[in-house]
Structure to design on (118 residues):
């Protein structure tokens, strides 16, 4: 995982990076899309709710470089891979593995969703 000091540096970093896809929150997604013509929003992939309310705190999006759209096989693989991961999270054995074996933290406020459309 890479990190940068601010949003302006992020746009510069991702435009010149090796990455063809990234996951960002709604605020960062909007900043990237308004400051770079190289990226598009492929789909929403997660939501985070405010604790103890049905209100959505933030949304998370999968962004891809526009050049990746020329390779339909890679786009399909990316979407199928994400969706398979969402399906696996519904499996109690896999879920238990992530929490215990991999040490990931659980948040009832975050929900991963299928990547279906923009």
């Amino acid at each position: 995982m890479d990190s940068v000091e601010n949003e302006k540096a992020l746009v510069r970093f991702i435009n010149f990076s090796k990455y063809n896809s990234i996951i960002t929150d709604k605020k960062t997604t909007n900043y990237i899309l308004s400051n770079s013509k190289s990226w598009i929003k492929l789909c929403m992939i997660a939501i985070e709710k405010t604790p103890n309310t049905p209100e959505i705190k933030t949304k998370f999006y999968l962004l891809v470089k526009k050049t990746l759209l020329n390779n339909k096989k890679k786009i399909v693989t990316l979407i199928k891979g994400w969706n398979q991961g969402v399906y696996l999270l519904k499996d109690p054995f896999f879920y238990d593995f992530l929490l215990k074996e991999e040490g990931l933290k659980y948040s009832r406020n975050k929900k991963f969703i299928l990547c279906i459309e923009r």
